[in-house]
Amino acid sequence: MEREKKSGNDVHGLVIVHTGDGKGKTTAALGLALRAWGDGLRVLVLQFIKSGGDYGERKGFAALTAADGRMEMRSCGRGFTMRGHVPPEEHRRAAKEALADARAAIVSGRYDLIVLDEINYAVKFGLLRVEDVIDLLKARPAALHLVLTGRDAAPEIIARADLVTEMRLVKHPYQAGIKAQRGIEF
Amino acid sequence: MEREKKSGNDVHGLVIVHTGDGKGKTTAALGLALRAWGDGLRVLVLQFIKSGGDYGERKGFAALTAADGRMEMRSCGRGFTMRGHVPPEEHRRAAKEALADARAAIVSGRYDLIVLDEINYAVKFGLLRVEDVIDLLKARPAALHLVLTGRDAAPEIIARADLVTEMRLVKHPYQAGIKAQRGIEF
């Protein structure tokens, strides 16, 4: 079935960007991954900033992987740069490794959809150069869908994207003094 | 574990709205559902407009349901009102039934998160009254998270929400003449 789709005339890999200051950038990418997986595509979610931990998202994905190995999730980051006490060079090294990992996955032909989670943030915070990301886009096979998430997506990346959505914060519970809710916000 | 969370002091059910003209409103709700499920919450996705079919999202959810029954998805609609030839009164009847179903689920205590997918669209197109939706919000137990998706969310609903994100279309592949991609956009 996958082969059928890949040989069809209509398969045009999309470069999708989720950016903006609102919630839902990563979450919508996870939803896309779920839908694509359900439709028979081979999916990789590669997290540039996040360092793993037992987030609900990881557990949810593990269930999909267990059901059918077409779903993979890898966390290659060291956490957000504004939190914790990880030296900047460690963040940069992790980002470079994730970049190499992403490139290998992109050219491997093993996936139909790859999510590069928080890669825009990695560029914004100087962990990666925008040229590194453009090179990834250029290396992409024509049928591969790529999703790039993170706030402040570089204009060069937006210029090369097919589908760009800005998640805009309209109202946030922090504003009303409500703490972040487990299972929902983290 | 669920009970632990529910008895904690920090559980404050959020009313979350995903609106706007961009992609990702339903998709982010599905991602939220996946994350919440992975975190041990009991989840229901109730689709007001969609009529089922074998979307990838349904197959993905079916895998989660099979892994652990805490995930349910129900499609109660008759499809988008602008497509097909379903008489308006049938759309309205389906929406009323979905509303009753939603109310029963909300007051049942059986769920920690309920997604009311496309309910904003149902209001916008006159299938439901905004007062019907406000009544649902009022009936909600304090610890229950509700996600309401669909473009053109009514101001009365936004006023009662804790977290509102507008998904704004920045760039769409239709603009470049690229057809919708299976597994990604539908």
Describe the structure.
- The structure is a homodimer of 186-residue chains.
- Chain A is built from 7 helices and 6 strands, in the order H-E-H-E-H-E-H-E-H-H-E-H-E.
- Chain A has one domain: P-loop containing nucleotide triphosphate hydrolases (Rossmann fold, 3-Layer(aba) Sandwich), CATH 3.40.50.300.
- The first copy, chain A, is an alpha/beta fold.
- The termini of chain A are far apart.
- Chain A has helices at residues 2-7, 25-38, 56-67, 88-108, 119-124, 130-139, 155-160, and strands spanning 15-19, 43-47, 71-75, 113-117, 145-149, 163-171.
- Residues 1-8 of chain A have low confidence and may be disordered.
- A 6-stranded parallel sheet of chain A has the order 3-2-4-5-1-6, sandwiched between helices.
- Chains A and B meet through strand 1, helix 2, helix 3 and strand 6 of A and strand 1, helix 2, helix 3 and strand 6 of B.
- Strand 6 of chain A pairs antiparallel with strand 6 of chain B, so a sheet runs across the interface.
Task: Please outline the helices and strands.
Two copies of one chain form a homodimer.
Chain A: H1 2-7, E1 15-19, H2 25-38, E2 43-47, H3 56-67, E3 71-75, H4 88-108, E4 113-117, H5 119-124, H6 130-139, E5 145-149, H7 155-160, E6 163-171
Parallel strand pairs in A: 1-5, 1-6, 2-3, 2-4, 4-5
What is the strand arrangement across the widest sheet of chain A? Answer: 3-2-4-5-1-6
Average pLDDT confidence of chain A is 89
What's the CATH topology name of chain A? Rossmann fold
Residue share in β-strands of chain A: 15-25%
